[in-house]
Amino acid sequence: VSISIRPLSPDDKARWQVLWHGYLTFYEHPINDALTENLWGRLMTEDHDPYCLVACDGKGTVIGIVQYLFHATTWTGRDKCYLQDLFVDPKARIGGAGRALIEAVYEKAAAADASEVYWMTQHFNIVARVLYDRVGELTPFIKYRKLM
Ligand SMILES: CC(C)(COP(=O)(O)OP(=O)(O)OC[C@H]1O[C@@H](n2cnc3c(N)ncnc32)[C@H](O)[C@@H]1OP(=O)(O)O)[C@@H](O)C(=O)NCCC(=O)NCCS
After folding, report:
1. Measuring from atom 35 of ligand 1, which residue has the nearest CA?
2. Of the chain's two ends, which shows fewer C-beta atoms within 10 Å, N or C?
3. pLDDT digits (tens, 9 = 90+) for 57-100
4. Beta bridge partners of residue 86, listed in sequence order
Protein backbone atom coordinates (compact mmCIF):
# COMPACT_ATOMS: atom_id res chain seq x y z
CA VAL A 1 0.00 0.00 0.00
CA SER A 2 1.39 3.42 -0.91
CA ILE A 3 0.91 5.88 1.94
CA SER A 4 1.34 9.59 1.41
CA ILE A 5 1.46 12.32 4.03
CA ARG A 6 0.29 15.90 3.58
CA PRO A 7 -1.03 18.80 5.66
CA LEU A 8 -4.72 18.85 6.56
CA SER A 9 -6.75 20.75 3.96
CA PRO A 10 -10.22 22.32 4.09
CA ASP A 11 -11.64 19.48 1.95
CA ASP A 12 -10.67 16.95 4.63
CA LYS A 13 -13.23 18.07 7.19
CA ALA A 14 -15.59 15.09 6.99
CA ARG A 15 -12.84 12.44 7.10
CA TRP A 16 -10.87 14.34 9.75
CA GLN A 17 -13.98 14.47 11.92
CA VAL A 18 -14.55 10.72 11.60
CA LEU A 19 -10.94 10.03 12.63
CA TRP A 20 -10.89 12.63 15.41
CA HIS A 21 -14.08 11.22 16.87
CA GLY A 22 -12.65 7.71 16.50
CA TYR A 23 -9.64 8.82 18.52
CA LEU A 24 -11.80 10.37 21.25
CA THR A 25 -13.90 7.20 21.37
CA PHE A 26 -10.72 5.12 21.65
CA TYR A 27 -9.95 7.11 24.81
CA GLU A 28 -13.62 6.87 25.94
CA HIS A 29 -13.73 10.65 25.88
CA PRO A 30 -17.05 12.40 25.27
CA ILE A 31 -17.59 13.98 21.85
CA ASN A 32 -18.47 17.65 21.97
CA ASP A 33 -19.43 19.19 18.64
CA ALA A 34 -18.52 22.73 19.69
CA LEU A 35 -15.02 21.63 20.75
CA THR A 36 -14.59 19.67 17.52
CA GLU A 37 -15.56 22.74 15.50
CA ASN A 38 -13.21 24.90 17.54
CA LEU A 39 -10.31 22.49 17.02
CA TRP A 40 -11.00 22.30 13.29
CA GLY A 41 -10.78 26.08 13.12
CA ARG A 42 -7.47 26.11 14.98
CA LEU A 43 -6.02 23.38 12.77
CA MET A 44 -7.02 25.41 9.72
CA THR A 45 -5.10 28.44 10.96
CA GLU A 46 -1.80 28.39 9.08
CA ASP A 47 1.54 28.75 10.85
CA HIS A 48 -0.03 28.38 14.28
CA ASP A 49 -0.26 25.55 16.84
CA PRO A 50 -1.73 22.98 16.80
CA TYR A 51 -0.88 21.39 13.44
CA CYS A 52 -2.35 18.34 11.72
CA LEU A 53 -0.91 16.05 9.06
CA VAL A 54 -2.98 13.36 7.33
CA ALA A 55 -2.04 10.01 5.85
CA CYS A 56 -3.72 9.02 2.56
CA ASP A 57 -3.97 5.60 0.97
CA GLY A 58 -3.31 4.94 -2.72
CA LYS A 59 -6.80 6.18 -3.61
CA GLY A 60 -6.29 9.47 -1.77
CA THR A 61 -8.61 8.57 1.10
CA VAL A 62 -7.53 10.03 4.44
CA ILE A 63 -6.81 7.04 6.71
CA GLY A 64 -4.89 8.63 9.58
CA ILE A 65 -4.19 11.85 11.42
CA VAL A 66 -1.45 13.20 13.65
CA GLN A 67 -1.70 16.46 15.64
CA TYR A 68 1.26 18.22 17.20
CA LEU A 69 2.43 21.53 18.60
CA PHE A 70 5.64 23.28 19.62
CA HIS A 71 6.54 24.81 22.96
CA ALA A 72 9.47 26.61 24.56
CA THR A 73 11.68 24.87 27.10
CA THR A 74 13.98 26.14 29.83
CA TRP A 75 16.80 23.72 29.07
CA THR A 76 17.70 24.89 25.59
CA GLY A 77 16.81 27.81 23.40
CA ARG A 78 15.11 25.41 21.04
CA ASP A 79 11.45 24.40 21.14
CA LYS A 80 10.21 20.89 21.78
CA CYS A 81 7.56 19.28 19.63
CA TYR A 82 4.72 17.54 21.45
CA LEU A 83 3.00 14.89 19.35
CA GLN A 84 -0.40 14.93 21.01
CA ASP A 85 -2.78 12.82 18.91
CA LEU A 86 -2.27 9.89 16.55
CA PHE A 87 -5.03 7.79 15.06
CA VAL A 88 -5.27 5.44 12.09
CA ASP A 89 -8.55 4.10 10.71
CA PRO A 90 -8.95 0.59 12.20
CA LYS A 91 -9.48 -0.78 8.68
CA ALA A 92 -6.13 0.64 7.52
CA ARG A 93 -3.86 -0.37 10.39
CA ILE A 94 -0.54 -2.21 10.18
CA GLY A 95 -0.09 -0.70 6.74
CA GLY A 96 2.59 1.80 7.68
CA ALA A 97 0.39 4.89 8.14
CA GLY A 98 1.18 5.28 11.85
CA ARG A 99 4.92 5.12 11.29
CA ALA A 100 4.69 7.47 8.30
CA LEU A 101 2.74 10.04 10.34
CA ILE A 102 5.27 9.98 13.20
CA GLU A 103 8.18 10.25 10.79
CA ALA A 104 6.48 13.19 9.05
CA VAL A 105 6.29 14.99 12.41
CA TYR A 106 10.01 14.29 12.86
CA GLU A 107 10.62 16.11 9.58
CA LYS A 108 8.47 19.08 10.60
CA ALA A 109 10.26 19.26 13.95
CA ALA A 110 13.66 19.14 12.30
CA ALA A 111 12.63 21.88 9.89
CA ALA A 112 11.55 24.01 12.88
CA ASP A 113 14.87 23.27 14.64
CA ALA A 114 13.07 21.64 17.57
CA SER A 115 15.32 19.75 19.99
CA GLU A 116 13.03 16.70 20.23
CA VAL A 117 9.67 15.20 19.43
CA TYR A 118 7.98 13.56 22.40
CA TRP A 119 4.66 11.92 23.17
CA MET A 120 2.82 10.01 25.87
CA THR A 121 0.82 6.84 25.80
CA GLN A 122 -0.92 4.57 28.27
CA HIS A 123 1.58 1.97 29.48
CA PHE A 124 -0.85 -0.81 28.51
CA ASN A 125 -1.34 0.43 24.93
CA ILE A 126 0.65 -2.51 23.59
CA VAL A 127 -0.40 -1.98 19.97
CA ALA A 128 0.89 1.59 19.91
CA ARG A 129 4.00 0.65 21.88
CA VAL A 130 5.03 -1.95 19.29
CA LEU A 131 5.34 0.97 16.89
CA TYR A 132 6.79 3.44 19.42
CA ASP A 133 9.53 1.02 20.46
CA ARG A 134 10.62 0.98 16.81
CA VAL A 135 10.58 4.70 16.10
CA GLY A 136 11.40 6.23 19.49
CA GLU A 137 13.09 5.82 22.82
CA LEU A 138 11.23 4.96 26.04
CA THR A 139 12.03 7.52 28.77
CA PRO A 140 11.89 6.84 32.53
CA PHE A 141 9.54 9.79 33.16
CA ILE A 142 6.00 9.27 34.42
CA LYS A 143 3.24 11.87 34.40
CA TYR A 144 1.63 13.59 37.43
CA ARG A 145 -1.19 16.08 37.23
CA LYS A 146 -3.65 18.17 39.20
CA LEU A 147 -6.89 18.81 37.38
CA MET A 148 -8.15 22.39 37.46
C1 LIG B 1 -1.12 3.09 17.14
C2 LIG B 1 -1.60 3.24 15.69
C3 LIG B 1 -1.64 4.72 15.35
C4 LIG B 1 -0.62 2.51 14.77
O5 LIG B 1 -1.01 2.77 13.43
P6 LIG B 1 -0.63 1.77 12.23
O7 LIG B 1 -0.91 2.48 10.98
O8 LIG B 1 -1.26 0.45 12.46
O9 LIG B 1 0.95 1.63 12.43
P10 LIG B 1 1.98 1.03 11.38
O11 LIG B 1 1.26 0.23 10.33
O12 LIG B 1 2.87 2.11 10.94
O13 LIG B 1 2.74 -0.03 12.28
C14 LIG B 1 3.96 0.29 12.85
C15 LIG B 1 4.79 -0.92 13.16
O16 LIG B 1 4.27 -1.75 14.19
C17 LIG B 1 4.11 -3.08 13.71
N18 LIG B 1 2.87 -3.54 14.23
C19 LIG B 1 1.80 -2.81 14.42
N20 LIG B 1 0.82 -3.56 14.96
C21 LIG B 1 1.34 -4.78 15.13
C22 LIG B 1 0.81 -5.99 15.64
N23 LIG B 1 -0.44 -6.06 16.12
N24 LIG B 1 1.60 -7.06 15.66
C25 LIG B 1 2.86 -6.98 15.19
N26 LIG B 1 3.40 -5.85 14.68
C27 LIG B 1 2.63 -4.78 14.66
C28 LIG B 1 4.09 -2.99 12.23
O29 LIG B 1 4.62 -4.16 11.64
C30 LIG B 1 4.98 -1.78 11.97
O31 LIG B 1 6.35 -2.08 12.02
P32 LIG B 1 7.35 -1.60 10.89
O33 LIG B 1 7.01 -0.17 10.54
O34 LIG B 1 8.69 -1.71 11.50
O35 LIG B 1 7.09 -2.55 9.77
C36 LIG B 1 -3.00 2.62 15.51
O37 LIG B 1 -2.98 1.28 15.97
C38 LIG B 1 -4.11 3.36 16.20
O39 LIG B 1 -4.66 4.32 15.69
N40 LIG B 1 -4.49 2.89 17.41
C41 LIG B 1 -5.58 3.46 18.17
C42 LIG B 1 -5.26 4.84 18.70
C43 LIG B 1 -3.97 4.88 19.44
O44 LIG B 1 -3.63 4.00 20.21
N45 LIG B 1 -3.27 5.96 19.20
C46 LIG B 1 -2.02 6.22 19.86
C47 LIG B 1 -2.32 6.72 21.20
S48 LIG B 1 -0.93 7.46 21.99
Report:
1. 96
2. C
3. 999 999 999 999 999 999 999 999 999 999 999 999 999 999 99
4. 66
